[in-house]
Design goal:
Elements lengths: L13 H17 L6 H13 L5 H11 L7 H13 L3 E5 L5 E5 L7 E4 L5 E3 L2 H15 L9 E4 L2 H5 L1
Parallel strand pairs: 3-5
Antiparallel strand pairs: 1-2, 3-4
Helix pairs in contact: 1-2, 2-3, 3-4
Length: 160
């Protein structure tokens, strides 16, 4: 199962959530997809969570909201693929193959992952830009920090 980020992002306002649901409806129609209750519920999990989340937790949250639905992982993964193709969420892959997803509202950015506890942090964009510039200047290497995760030990695990 996935770990959430630390610190968690603040909740989205109701106005942002409403606008994002309207955007999903519009994008689905424009691309020729049906606007279904299940697709809307899955996206609503992201809007409610506003954090990194794995497919298993998405499924668990939808089951909690709609216990009468018989949704399976396949439906969740297909919807996650669709939401990615619409540019509404990003996928972040861990080295062990696990994936977590998050809203694309914040634009592409890097992550920090603790190898011990599994916690995830968004990489500060100023630090990422400085790292990118330093590597380019000193080594002529252009690194794609925005779409990858740096792994290591968080402060708590490093002192344990």
């Amino acid at each position: 199962m996935c770990q959430s980020s630390v610190p968690a992002k603040p909740p989205l306002s109701e106005a942002v959530r409403r606008a994002e649901k309207q955007r999903l409806r519009r994008l689905l129609r424009e691309q020729g997809y049906a606007v279904t209750a299940r697709r809307m519920a899955i996206y609503d999990v992201f809007l409610e969570t506003n954090d990194h989340i794995c497919a298993e937790h998405v499924l668990e949250a939808v089951h909690g909201m709609h216990p009468e639905w018989h949704m399976n992982k396949t439906t969740v993964y297909r919807t996650l693929d669709l939401l990615q193709s619409l540019g509404l969420i990003y996928e972040m892959r861990h080295d062990d193959g696990r994936a977590q997803y998050e809203l694309a509202l914040y634009g592409p950015h890097g992550h920090l992952i603790c190898n011990v506890c599994g916690q995830v942090w968004d990489l500060d964009s100023r630090i990422a830009a400085a790292l990118h510039q330093e590597l380019r200047t000193k080594q002529g290497f252009i690194v794609d920090v925005e779409n990858h995760a740096l792994q290591g030990l968080c402060a708590r695990c490093a002192t344990a």
